[in-house]
């Protein structure tokens, strides 16, 4: 039976190298080279999948499983085709969670704001996470309890600042019209909003100290499992807006991230109090 201590036996750099290799061979050749036949809608015009998404997931799935015998895989595209794939998050086996191209809309439109996200979870807990930007080569990694690392250097989230100086990504998609209107009104006293249409890129901004907070309402594990772990290991604080801790099995609710618990409470009070 796999135990959390076994994460230490994983070659973290080997996973990083695998992600880089797949991004180079299966994703970058398609960037700004997609025709209409290489892009299709899933649930609507803002929810796309491309041949690059599918090729990267096909390459990562068996390769990651081979790195950890007995593990299973949840890929975004596999789960889109068969929602039962998500049930693997509740099993006892370790699970690799893959978002092959986070920010597919950006990717399809030729904007260099996308990334590969991989997480390793077990029994509702994220144990390791990776975010890789194939354009500039940034690689963020974290193992639970081992700190957050970006391109080989340990990173910390931004220091706490007053609410009017807080820069962040505040999404009003997927939250309903009433909450969206309330958030638009209550966020006016905050600092600059920078929404990149890629959770991965927004998590990288948090790790680099260029943003103070993020708010999300669509909690698919491939979007957030790795990022929340990285943020926590960099000293940040995250929770669902009802105050409960986030876990990769959480699919409902809204997720708020801030530099520390006090900042989280202040921001939560401003937006939802």
TrEMBL record:
Cofactor: Mg(2+)
Pfam families: Inositol_P (PF00459)
Keywords: Magnesium, Metal-binding
Domain of life of the source: Bacteria
Gene Ontology MF terms in the entry: inositol monophosphate 1-phosphatase activity; metal ion binding
Keyword Zinc applies: no
Keyword match Iron-sulfur: no
GO biological process, one term: inositol metabolic process
InterPro entries per UniProt: Inositol_monophosphatase-like (IPR000760)
Binding site for Mg(2+): 76, 99, 102, 223
Family: Belongs to the inositol monophosphatase superfamily.
Name under which the protein is recorded: Inositol monophosphatase
Native species: Azospirillum doebereinerae
Lineage: Bacteria, Pseudomonadati, Pseudomonadota, Alphaproteobacteria, Rhodospirillales
């Amino acid at each position: 039976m796999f135990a959390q201590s076994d994460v230490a036996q994983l070659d973290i750099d080997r996973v990083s190298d695998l992600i880089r290799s797949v991004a180079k061979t299966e994703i970058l050749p398609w960037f700004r080279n997609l025709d209409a036949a290489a892009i299709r809608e899933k649930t609507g015009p803002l929810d796309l999948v491309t041949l690059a998404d599918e090729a990267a997931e096909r390459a990562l799935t068996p390769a990651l499983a081979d790195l950890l015998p007995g593990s299973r895989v949840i890929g975004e595209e596999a789960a889109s085709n068969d929602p039962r794939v998500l049930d693997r998050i509740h099993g006892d086996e370790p699970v690799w969670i893959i978002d092959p191209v986070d920010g597919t809309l950006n990717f399809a439109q030729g904007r260099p704001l996308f990334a590969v996200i991989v997480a390793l979870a077990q029994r509702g807990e994220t144990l390791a996470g990776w975010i890789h930007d194939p354009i500039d080569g940034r690689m963020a990694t974290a193992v639970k309890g081992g700190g957050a690392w970006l391109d080989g250097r340990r990173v910390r989230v931004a220091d706490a600042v007053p609410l009017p100086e807080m820069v962040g990504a505040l999404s009003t998609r997927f939250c309903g019209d009433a909450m969206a209107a309330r958030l638009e009104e209550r966020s006016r006293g905050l600092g600059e909003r920078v929404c990149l249409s890629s959770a991965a890129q927004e998590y990288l901004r948090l790790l680099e100290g260029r943003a103070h907070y993020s708010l999300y309402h669509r909690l698919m594990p491939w979007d957030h499992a790795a990022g929340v772990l990285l943020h926590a290991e960099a000293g940040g604080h995250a929770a669902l807006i009802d105050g409960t801790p986030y876990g990769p099995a959480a699919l409902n609710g809204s997720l708020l991230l801030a530099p520390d618990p006090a900042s989280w409470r202040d921001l939560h009070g401003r937006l939802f109090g």
